Fold this sequence. Notes:
By secondary structure, the chain is an alpha/beta fold. It contains 14 helices and eleven strands. It has helices at 3-6, 16-27, 39-47, 56-66, 79-89, 103-111, 155-167, 177-204, 206-212, 215-220, 228-235, 239-263, 267-281, 298-307; strands at 9-12, 32-35, 52-53, 69-72, 95-97, 118-119, 121-123, 144-148, 171-175, 286-287, 310-311. Helix 8 packs across helix 12 (239-263).
Amino acid sequence: MSIDERGAVCVLGTGLIGGSLLRAAAAAGYVAFGYNRSESGVSAARRDGFDVSDDLSAVLIRAAGVDALLVIAVPMPAVDYLLADIATLAPGCPLTDVVSVKGPVLDAVRKHGLEARYVGGHPMTGTAESGWAATDAGLFADAVWAVGVDEGTQAEPWSRVVRLALDCGSLVVPVLAEEHDQAVARISHLPHVLAETLAAAGAAGGKLALGLAAGSFRDGTRVAGTAPDLVRAICEPNAAALGRVLDEAIETLVTARDRLRVNGDLRELVEVGYRGRTAYDDRTHWEITGITPGTGDWLGELHRAGQDGGVLRAL
Length: 315
């Protein structure tokens, strides 16, 4: 596929995910450029040979001139700020994001009148590191990338988002914004909260506890090493769904505690947890084929396929 067929990509925010996407898009042959608010981030990206500026207006005007796919890659609190300028300077560009929640982004996009060209996105990858120094063009290889199929999604911008995800090496899972947020509350945001809880419990045990800590503590607290502000920016926008899952988790823990007190028994929790982990280890993806974007009930067909474990490996 030629560069002209791919189109240009403009990444707005060059931290871990956005910067890695800029690297991956450039490596895949896209004309890729970006914006970052901090001068230090811009300088670091430029030293590595990437086309990044801290002049948002100039970047958006350039993107509008080449019909670039805009990728919002900032924490949720900064999304509205970007969308206001996009609505003024580049309202016709196809638009996606890599934010960890989809419902609040979709609401903000609608508020600014940009929904006709918007397709939600969320690559399910990352590390505990942050900033340009942590970026990696291979971050998306074999990762799952959620792509929105909400009502009103248009085929042309959707195809561009999917093509970018595939060109970065990911598998694409079609998903509705609301269902995405419910799912990530369970498999991403709750783990962050539990990791923080485990880390705090270990530290409360003092030097002896931390001195004895080994693999289970290390693995269970890995994401607690993420910058606190970033964890808050990831989890807090999904407060409603995360709150419901926390209620479930607390109820599970209280039941386990009560049974342990009464008869010293953790069997039910351990067995249910073992089955859950085994289901994760044994999960499989089947390839979605035969659905043409823009034809028939394509959004509904993709939604149902994604719910059933299907992924797109090609477009």
